[in-house]
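tl;dr need the bound structure. longer version: we got a ligand (pyridoxal-5'-phosphate) that a collaborator sent over and nobodys looked at where it sits. i said id run it. heres the input, straight from their email, havent touched it
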Amino acid sequence: MTDATDPYADVGVPTVINGAGTKTRVGGTLMREEAVAAMAAAAESFARISDLQAAACDRIAAATGAEAGYVTSGANAALTMAAAACIAGDDLGVMDRLPETPGVADEIVVPRSHRTGYDHALRAAGATMVDVGANDRQRGTGAVNVQPWQIDDAIGEDTAAVAYLAKPDTAPPLERVCEVAHAREVPVIVDAAAQLPPTRNLERFVAEGADLVAFSGGKAIRGPQSTGLLAGRSDLVRSVALQHLDMHAAAAAWDPPETLFDVDDLPGVPTQGLGRSFKIGKEELVAVLAALEAFLAEDDEATLAAWHDRAEFVADELGDLPGLSATLVDADKTAVVTSVLATVDEDTAGIETTDLVRDLRRENPRVFVGGDELPAPRFTVNPRCLSDDEAATLVRRVAAALERGG
Ligand SMILES: *Cc1c(COP(=O)(O)O)cnc(C)c1O
């Protein structure tokens, strides 16, 4: 890319060689060309957002097996809207007051071992988090973190929902949690933001009983970074639409599509809801639908195999550098992305891993490797956001940084 077409150079900002994976702070993902084309075309003409959401509803339902779906401004916003829907239901008065919840059942029961920084998204809707269980398994102090009966025990008359974080190793199984919650007539919200690929996971969580599932549009789907998908029960998606669409409408002329909700069932036009802060543009909306279609058509085994090969190349090359050893993590190639775990012998390398990772980020272009385990002498390389050329550059730049440091 020449500087003339580099929008980052235009604003004086270095590009990033992204070995950290689909991380929001380095731009998430590269959009599919189908999504870019849809976005550019949509910028040239208007469409009614509620019509686009109705079309999205059908497409997301078809892709996930859910009754309905909605496009949000990221999986995080999908979680906020999910919580808002579970708290408010069809009550326009409660929608109007959120995130204030006086006198309203606003508790979201969540296993402690499922809590992440992202559950601020649930609290943003006014939810009160009710933690259950412990973190015994991760800490090595017990065999289980939480049992289904404990979730049941935490459900009471103030419960609005149960929250569940979907990861390959999360327990208890989603089906069991849904059984417990549904027996108490409580919906289950699943954060599956990063659980794609495999493509089949689009259907999996709904099939296992989830009432609402949040996916990131800006990770594997490779739509705009600022998109997410919410899939689930039609009554809850209806509540999302009522709290998300721009409601600056004259009652007499208000005519939203019936796919989303029936005006005759409402006492009037809702107010601008909690979701108005998370609006989604026509360009992003059609772009994520185009990306979803392309994602569904993709052979994800081939994608995973290509990523695996790239990870193998990086691991082989890094492992040859003085002071570094490298292994493959999650190398089963079928469901998750293979990544590289590099371990630094800091004495031999002559540089602390933290300095190495930071130095790489200060170069131009910036080189991002995964540093979640710092200050432990380890870093990771995720192959999914690298081209083969960039993977080779990344290796060269690590070698040069080691040479300087050592
Ligand atoms: C990425 C991620 C999110 C946020 O998704 P966005 O689409 O960036 O809003 C939420 N939860 C988990 C577990 C994630 O990995």
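gonna send this back to them w/ a short note. The radius of gyration is 23 Å.
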